[in-house]
Structures are given as structure tokens and as C-alpha cells.
Amino acid sequence: MSDKRKEPPADGPAGSLVVKRQKPDSNNSLALTPSTGQAGAVIRTVQRVSDLQAPIMLLSGHQVYFTLDFPEVPRDGQLLLTLSNQVLWNAYGECNNYMNMKGHAGAVLEIQWSRDGRNIFSASTDKTVGVWDVEIGERVKKLKGHAGFINSVSAARRGNELITSGGDDSAIHVWDPRVKGAVKTFKDKFPVLAVSFSQDGGLVFGGGIDNQIKAWDMRKEEVVYSLQGHLDTVTGLRLSPDGDYLLSNAMDNTVRIWDVKPFAPMGTRLLKILEGAPHGFEKNLLRPCWSPDGDFVAAGSGDRSVVVWDVPKGKIAYKLPGHKGCVNEVDWTGNIVASASNDKTIFVGELNLDEVK
Predict the structure, then answer these.
(1) Which residue, 299, 335, 334, is CA-closest to 320?
(2) Chain segment 328-356, per-residue pLDDT in tens
(3) Judging by DSSP bridges, how do beta strands 203-208 and 192-197 pair with one another?
(4) Which residue among 35, 125, 157, 262 is the one 20 to 30 A from 107 at the CA level?
């Protein structure tokens, strides 16, 4: 089910003037500006920056949404969005359900598209990693090996498309879907809540309840360095589009940016600390994201908002309201941002970043 954000009524507060939206083929839409005088309101033209049917679309369902993900490129002109209940939505048009895939026996805590957009990888509380074929809508691989809930999954960007997963059993597994069983296993002392590959796939980053982010070397099979600075549990990791920086979210109510270039000097890897997105009392696994150009980052918040920061300035560029529950994950493609929440809704909206640059 989809719905557009409703416009204010004509007789609303401050005498808001209702303006009919222009035809869908127009690149502009008209914004509402409260009128405070007899001369009426000043109408501001807003430049549309996406192919969404409306600047903000609302998708609603029947369960809490823990995770969502956009593919790197649209498929056949369709921008697909996959959610934690393994439902594919088309973000364009009426935001119709594209496909419903079933198979996990527990909640899906994180998902990621493959590089070619043909598969989806999922981490579940049923202790398995799923590999899904989006053409037929079925699970084609069921990867077993974890002894506890699997909290996170990530795919390599280069070479063979390996998958890594981290779980409550304090293990990080690396999988090759072409073979049975994990090809590598890194054993930590504490539960792992977030994982990510480095740009070349030579390192696996893992963060958890010890407040650290460890870099595991695939060849040496040991920790080569740790990123220390968070004061509470690390819940989300995202590599920047160019692979030089790592974004982390933690329950200390900070989002941090780290330099993970191969020869960056130790002690100077922490570059920025971003504040404004508290976790709240629910302590969910909040996952941040990068903008496609790497100039902005975004994260959900326990205060029911989506916070967008300007990375070079280190300041909040947007604080987006609308949700009625904790926002668990945010993803970004082009000028479109999507957010998944405990309130059983997903907002898909466009951002004109030229306004804040």
C-alpha cells in the first residue's frame, strides 16, 4: 500500500493557501507558504530532483521494519527497494509491491543487494544467511554456521562476491556462495553487531558490544588494527563510495567517520564525530548510510527523525520528521532517501542537496 504525504487543509492554521500540484510531467512543484496578510501567500517554486511520483511517498505494512536497501543501479528502469520482510517495492509510480520472498524463520536484521542486482543477501535471527534470486523470487542458498542470531551481512565490492556476516555467537564468517560452509571464520570475544568489507576485500571490519571496530585481515586471519573512540555498542558500519572512509553508528549517540586507507597513520584515523541522532531507550541496531557522492551521511534516530549531515562542514543539513517510531535504517540512491521505522512505515523522498551546499 502506498500513500502520498497529505497537503494541509485550506482552512488550516495561519490561513495556509492550498495550491494544486502541477502535472506529473513538470519538473517543478509548488510549495505551500502560510499567508499572514491580506495580500495572500507568496508561492515558491520547488525544483523536483527525482522521478518519484511525489516528493515524498509513504509505504505502509504490517510489521516493524529493521532494514532496507536500494540496488546500486535500477533494474529495467525500475528503482527497487527491498525491506526486512523480503518484499520488493518499486519506488517509482504508485510504489507497488514487486515481489514477496519467503523463507526465513526469524526476523531479517540486515539485507544487501549483490553488485549485479540479481541477488539479495539477508541476515536473520534464524541463524542463517540467505541468498535470494530476485528473478524467481526464491532463496537459492541457505548458509549455515552461526550458533546465534545473525545481526549483519555485507558483500565484497571487488573480485569474487564473497559475503561476510556477524552474529551473537561472537563469530564473523566469510562465505563463498559457490561452496558449502564458511571459507573463513574470525572468532571475537564479544557479540558482533555490524560488519563491512574494505574496498579491495582484504579486510573485514567488525563492530559490537566492546565499543571497538576491529579490522580483520583476510590473509593473516587476525586483527591488524582497531578503531577506538566509541563509548558504547557499535550498531552499524558503512564503507564510503570511494572506499577510503568507514562510517559507524553507536549507542553513545554519535556517528563517526574513520580513515581506513591502507597506510593511514594510526592514531589519526578518527576524522569526524557527528551528533544529533540519539539512539533512545529502545537500543535498536541503527544503520547509517552515505550519499552516492560521499559528501553527506544520514542516520535514523530514536527521536523518530532522519538526520542528514554535511560531511565537509560536519554540520546537520537536514532533520527530517514524519515517522512515529524509532528509525532503524536509512539508505540513499541518487537524490532519493528511504527510511525504515518501528512504526511499520517506510518513507521514500527526494532531497535537493544543492539547497544546502
Answers:
(1) 299
(2) 999 999 899 999 999 988 999 999 888 87
(3) antiparallel
(4) 157
